[in-house]
Amino acid sequence: MKLSHRITHLTGGGSDGWGVFYRARRMISEGIAVVELTIGEHDIPTHPSILAAMNDSAVGGHTGYAMVPGTALLRDTVAARVQTRTGVPTTRDNVLITPGGQAALFAAHAAACNAGDTALYLDPYYATYPGTIRGVGAVAKAVQTHAGDAFQPRASEIDAAAEGAVSLLINSPNNPTGVVYSRETLEGIAEVCKKRDLWLISDEVYDTQVWEGEHISPRALPDMAERTLVVGSMSKSHAMTGSRCGWIVAPAEVTEHLINLATHTTYGVPGFIQDAASFALSAGRELEDEISEPFRRRRALATEILGAQNAVTMIPSQGAMYLMLDVRATGLTGEAFANALLDTHHIAVMPGESFGKAAAGHVRVAMTIDDDAFANALRTLCSFAAVLSDQRENA
């Protein structure tokens, strides 16, 4: 017997991009102290008020099967949130609750793509994107962005790649780069989607983490609501990563089919998790700002530290919990630099190459440890890069 090609080729037959992370975790398991700046996991737990709401719901009996599309309360709450933020009329009929943003990404591509269809995504990308596309039987095709453009996508290059494609996946604020797509960028993307008749899948899980500019959902642009599938999540906005609660916002006729898919796959999200999510969203911007504030603060620290040296260059960090740093002056690839930093200083960062070809020679730094430790680690990284750059110049 053989396993399916679909399951054995989720990573395209190559590395899944997590080698440095896995090595850091092995070192930790061996008792070696490692400073982890790798994954997007908050250094604070889920807020006590959210946990209290979750506990009250579970103790109150909401532990059986929940409605597959999501509870009416949470679907209404998500719809109201999205309508308030975008100005686009939205009801529960547009909302499917999913087990996290990753399940929403899979479902969105299952809705948009037939087996063998080409699905576009932008490079650099979150590590699961191409595998998610392959998982629904589609062909994953990357469109590179450029460090010289601060990784803002070029509509002309998307258009050139779009012949025969059926969908485009974007992410703003962006993981891994920290870039927030400008209105001009999004309007260009929207025009390509309309010209090429593409579904636009918009991953907006970092929409509460914007440090410069504004978050614009492409669903709010003219004539885009009917072709845009928006992915959202409680993970980043409310430090509920382990709760696995997300959603898709889509045209109502699409949501009907997505509910059928959920019925045959995930069968919904636990009711007590949904009740906690409803509570958290109803708490409004004050709670969201409290959870995002550490990253805003550390981004300011990073800007100061990086501005005082010239060995490492930061891609403009406008949002999300990450920094994308250009380390090409050292003469090393991002992967080689990350491994050397881990070996020499026991600091773990993600190589840019983990997120595609466009970020080669860069590393991604997660701002997910306390301020002092973060500042010390970043200064060490810069000093290490300076030593390598000097060695290269003097060789």
From TrEMBL:
Reaction equations catalysed: L-aspartate + 2-oxoglutarate = oxaloacetate + L-glutamate
Cofactor or coenzyme needed: pyridoxal 5'-phosphate
Key words, A-Z: Aminotransferase, Pyridoxal phosphate, Transferase
Domain Aminotransferase class I/classII large: 34-380
GO-annotated biological processes: amino acid metabolic process
E.C. number(s) listed in UniProt: 2.6.1.1
Cited InterPro entries: Aminotransferase_I/II_large (IPR004839), AspAT/PAT-like (IPR050596), PyrdxlP-dep_Trfase (IPR015424), PyrdxlP-dep_Trfase_major (IPR015421), PyrdxlP-dep_Trfase_small (IPR015422)
Superkingdom field: Bacteria
Any GO molecular function: L-aspartate:2-oxoglutarate aminotransferase activity
Family: Belongs to the class-I pyridoxal-phosphate-dependent aminotransferase family.
Protein name: aspartate transaminase
